[in-house]
């Protein structure tokens, strides 16, 4: 594998991860975190960058599909997990791209209703999804570098022109807030979904490469893509914190990003950023709808009709949900993410660790423990916190909405220690023979 293959693969991974949520989430997080921006950035980068990159490393180890991530629990569990992942993807991050497009590129310049934007937007998505074209791939190679250059200029302008005088933080739990906000990037989910796409692409381009060569390529590319994400996330959070006193505290995510870009680079660059972000959102939406439709098509014996019906339903959901503002869609996404994200993180980690530590028994025990202890966090996210508090207050980290972490870790350790203790002790004759 040459350096060109590594560079192309790393850039492709970064492009697949870097979408609308990655742009609009970090600045507001930094804006609200003030002098504790570094703690928030640490938490955000763990769930928004480190875990997704581990997901790619897991794919490098498996070199399979999304189904392979959870099949050790059981085939039925894996199928249900796949359906949940694709249902969430098509119902939340896909419509959010239309909402971001409206707030970034339409609303500031034209007084048109958001419903009209989402209608036109997903009509185009549907046309592209049922008539596949390489235009989106070509656009992606241009869009991501363009957005990245503008963002780096914006970050550097803020760092070198602003005084490092941060406002006091109003966050009571900055580190866990950063982790939970990182859920909204959907990047861990993206890792288990798009990792398979990378595997297929590499198999096509590097037909003569061995399993180990492809594993090293994907792993190294994942690390480089992760470094890029860490730099951008950290820079955007720091930039938001530097502008802590420059905007109204109730400003929206998209308005803050527009405001920062205007103050640092001027209105022309802001307009260019809006256009690039809108096009990037569009390619993301087409990718989600196409990927989900491909999955359903595969489940129904490669039926073209199943593909088209799924694409239609996905675009219809996009029209209905995409007309709401970005903040509302993010709030609506919280319960589903509180449930599916911990399970996804655990599946990624179990697929990364050596096989001797991830037997079938370990997989089943740890995953089902995570499911059980994720339920209280899910119920709390839908307004039942006070009702369930007396029953879950004893769970460590439950006040941070991460009550699943320690139980999953304890079960993982216990299962592995129990496996070692059950090994047959050496026969006394075998022991004696060692001394003869």
What brief labels describe this structure?
single chain; 436 residues; mainly alpha; Amino acid/polyamine transporter I; 18 helices; 79% helix; 0% strand; globular; transport; transmembrane; L-valine transmembrane transporter activity; Brnchd-chn_aa_trnsp_Livcs; cell membrane
What does this structure look like?
Pfam families: Branch_AA_trans. InterPro entries: Brnchd-chn_aa_trnsp_Livcs. Helix 5 runs antiparallel to helix 13 and helix 6 (93-106) runs antiparallel to helix 13 (267-299). The chain has helices spanning 3-17, 20-33, 37-62, 66-70, 75-91, 93-106, 114-130, 135-161, 174-183, 187-205, 211-242, 253-265, 267-299, 304-322, 326-352, 360-392, 405-421, 428-433. The protein is mostly helical and 436 residues long.
SSE diagram, text form:
Elements: H1 3-17, H2 20-33, H3 37-62, H4 66-70, H5 75-91, H6 93-106, H7 114-130, H8 135-161, H9 174-183, H10 187-205, H11 211-242, H12 253-265, H13 267-299, H14 304-322, H15 326-352, H16 360-392, H17 405-421, H18 428-433
Helix pairs in contact: 1-10, 1-11, 2-3, 2-11, 2-12, 3-9, 3-10, 3-11, 3-15, 5-13, 6-7, 6-13, 6-14, 7-13, 7-14, 8-11, 8-12, 8-13, 12-13, 13-14, 15-16, 16-17
Protein name: Branched-chain amino acid transport system II carrier protein
Membrane topology: Multi-pass membrane protein
Organism: Flagellimonas oceani
